[in-house]
């Protein structure tokens, strides 16, 4: 694969030390490992190769990969989530912990904790003290990936809609090219999305880097509502 390729990847991620499944995009694999979650959708990961969103070891392997080929390989901690850092394990007073989180009643041993923007795992609460591990949950582990590139997006318009949908988590975008200039007609939900301004400027850079567009026009369309449509205030 080349840098900038937009691909769909089916993968299974294991702890290489004990071959326990950590994550998968494949429903059949989750069921076989007895980790199936009926509340999630199992579907291939969509990513831009070389975009830096995947761990370094996986990115490097993808650059040498071919579509429709099965691969299995291990990634050492230094090319995954790093070695465990003892200094990232912090101890604090239980009262300080309670004041530092949004909902103290939700705290549980082994559960997630967020303090000052840092994500951690609550390891222990004893004698008025609490210990939190701020290492990544997969730090120090050798990871085993089994994966297959099931699709490479080639069509230029599909590249744009794929990037739009994966960056917003929504669909309904319409795209039209005039040479290298691009017009994107936005679905109405965008007008109420507080994150759109940030997402838009990130998308502009991505579209220029990976689709080769020049001028980008974002077009909003607000159709007139008819009386009685959802969202209209009704009279009592």
Description of the structure:
The chain has about 240 residues and is an alpha+beta fold. The chain has 3 domains: about 1-80 and about 135-155, Roll (Chitinase A, domain 3), CATH 3.10.50; about 85-135, Beta Barrel (Thrombin, subunit H); about 155-230, Alpha-Beta Plaits, CATH 3.30.70. About 20% of the residues lie in helices and about 30% in strands. It has helices spanning about 25-30, 55-65, 95-100, 155-170, 195-210, and strands spanning about 5-15, 20-25, 45-50, 70-75, 90-95, 110-115, 120-125, 130-135, 145-150, 175-180, 180-185, 215-220. Strands 1, 2, 3, 4 and 9 form a 5-stranded antiparallel β-sheet that branches. A hairpin with a 4-residue loop joins strand 1 and strand 2. Helix 4 (about 155-170) runs antiparallel to helix 5. The longest helix is centred in the C-terminal third of the chain and has 15 residues, at about 195-210. The chain is globular, with a radius of gyration of 23 Å.
Estimate nothing, just give the exact number of structural domains.
Answer: 3
Order of helices and strands: EEHEHEEHEEEEHEEHE
What's the rounded overall pLDDT mean? 91
Flag low-confidence runs: none
Distance between the termini: 62 Å
Structural class by SSE content:
alpha+beta
CATH architecture of the largest domain: Roll
């Amino acid at each position: 694969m080349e840098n900038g390729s937009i691909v769909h990847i089916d993968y299974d991620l294991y702890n290489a030390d004990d071959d326990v499944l950590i994550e998968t995009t494949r429903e059949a694999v989750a069921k076989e490992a007895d980790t199936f979650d009926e509340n999630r959708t199992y579907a291939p990961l969509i990513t831009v190769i070389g975009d830096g969103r995947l761990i370094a070891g996986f990115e490097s392997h993808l650059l040498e990969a071919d579509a429709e080929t099965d691969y299995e390989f291990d990634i050492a901690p230094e090319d995954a989530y790093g070695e465990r850092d003892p200094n990232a394990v912090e101890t604090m007073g239980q009262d300080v912990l309670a004041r530092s989180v949004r909902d103290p009643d939700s705290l549980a041993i082994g559960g997630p904790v967020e303090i000052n923007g840092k994500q951690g795992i609550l390891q222990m609460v004893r004698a008025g003290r609490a210990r939190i591990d701020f290492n990544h949950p997969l730090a120090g582990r050798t990871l085993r990936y089994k994966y297959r590139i099931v699709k490479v997006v080639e069509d230029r318009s599909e590249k744009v809609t794929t990037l739009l949908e994966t960056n917003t988590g929504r669909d309904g975008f319409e795209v039209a090219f005039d040479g290298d200039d691009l017009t994107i007609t936005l679905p109405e939900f965008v007008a109420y999305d507080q994150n759109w301004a940030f997402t838009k400027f990130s998308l502009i850079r991505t579209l220029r880097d990976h689709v080769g567009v020049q001028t980008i026009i974002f077009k909003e369309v607000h159709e007139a509502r008819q009386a009685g449509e959802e969202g209209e205030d009704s009279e009592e």
